[in-house]
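Forum > Structural Biology > Help requests

Title: Can anyone predict the 3D structure of L-threonate dehydrogenase?

Hi all, first post here. I have the sequence for L-threonate dehydrogenase but no way to get a structure on my laptop. I'd be grateful if someone could post the structure tokens.
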Amino acid sequence: MQDVRTAAVIGLGSMGWGAALSLLRAGFTVSGCDVRSDVLQRFSDAGGKSCKAPSEATVEADVVFVFVVNSSQAEDVLFGPGGALEAAHAGTVFLLCATMAPSATVAIADRLEAAGMLVVDAPVSGGHAKALSGEMVVMGSGSPEAFARAQPALDAVSSKVFRLGDRPGPGSQVKMINQLLAGVHIAVTAEAMTFAAKTGIDLKTLYEVLRVSAGSSWMFENRGEHIVSGDYTPRSAVDIFVKDLGIVASEADRAGAATPLASTALSLFRQASEAGLGKEDDAAVAKVLAEKSGVVLPGMTVIR
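Reply #1:
Sure, ran it for you. Structure tokens for L-threonate dehydrogenase below:
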């Protein structure tokens, strides 16, 4: 191809993996970076270039997607030893896709821009399946130049890109509110399914009724199925929502906003994490309520 496009994806977890494969399908040359050797091998097998250090991945990249877990990891992979900034050329577009506190996103963006980089605050939504199909939703904010440079890569990984402002920050603010809703919906899904089990309702039947009824939500339809099947393979882990709802609680406190439902959901996720469920699928919060209610859900063998 005459205009070969190059991209780097730092963090090949649930969402980053899907983004990297979508970029490959769109004809990008893609370097992927992850700490797990088995994931790097799978990425090489899929046609990507596997890199152990972020600096290796960004040597020739036009755009760099950062799909790590939190702001601390983002700072490490960008500015730490072997970090992406060591090898990136001026004008490279960095897409900050991790869910972070808006203030942390702005601080990281400022450092990147001071080094001559372009930045899009670009948290995403849609789950693992949408990431794999290149249909994520991007909640973006950044300069028109950054968006223009990143557009081909954004087209490859997403079905919808919202432009929420011309500076980093608003994207992370909107993602924070999305995570408030997502976390509360997961928690209430767990509560509904556990209550139903306690009263003797068949969970599969209940799920089929409710997912097409007014009480449903995207999270109920998705996580409710996990509970019915007893499948807690982590697509998004409990500890992710400990982090994300922790951001909601902190930012709400700073703004003086009342968020009682988010606080209750955060407490439930924390209980699940403290019970050793932090690495399981976030639907595993249902196990905490099941044990308190004295019921055994699918996938549970005993009540502790």
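The first strand starts at residue 6 and ends at 10. The chain has two domains: 6-167, 173-293.
Shout if anything looks off.
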